[in-house]
């Protein structure tokens, strides 16, 4: 059997302890619409639930889902033996690293101590997920 004609990434789902708060962070950071949210399910804490942020109309980028994970632990950056590992991260293209870092910090991100490259900056979102701002 061959590959189906259409296979397209529609969304990236991010596990978090605070999905609605983290979705608001990425909505502000990227300037993307905060599309919808779901309240916590029975038994979940008040910060639980689900939220969705989508690229603006006409922008062909995957949506970002934020999903409550009761066992979420922030990953270590850079990774450490025995620590929680960031298995994926977002790369965000920018034209100016300095102004993009300043904006990300204003939105609530933290600049990571370890920076492996001159062409991108690693930041941590408010829940500790690393993401990169890349030239």
Automatic annotation (TrEMBL):
Record's keyword annotation contains Methyltransferase: no
Record-linked SUPFAM superfamilies: Glyoxalase/Bleomycin resistance protein/Dihydroxybiphenyl dioxygenase
Highest rank taxon of the organism: Bacteria
Pfam families documented for this protein: Glyoxalase_6
GO molecular function: dioxygenase activity; lyase activity
Keyword hit for Hydrolase: no
InterPro entries xref list: Glyas_Bleomycin-R_OHBP_Dase, Glyoxalase_6
Alphabetized UniProt keyword annotations: Dioxygenase, Lyase, Oxidoreductase
Domain Glyoxalase-like: start-end pairs: 12-134
Protein name per its UniProtKB record: Catechol 2,3-dioxygenase-like lactoylglutathione lyase family enzyme
Organism encoding this protein: Actinopolymorpha rutila
Upper classification of the organism: Bacteria, Bacillati, Actinomycetota, Actinomycetes, Propionibacteriales
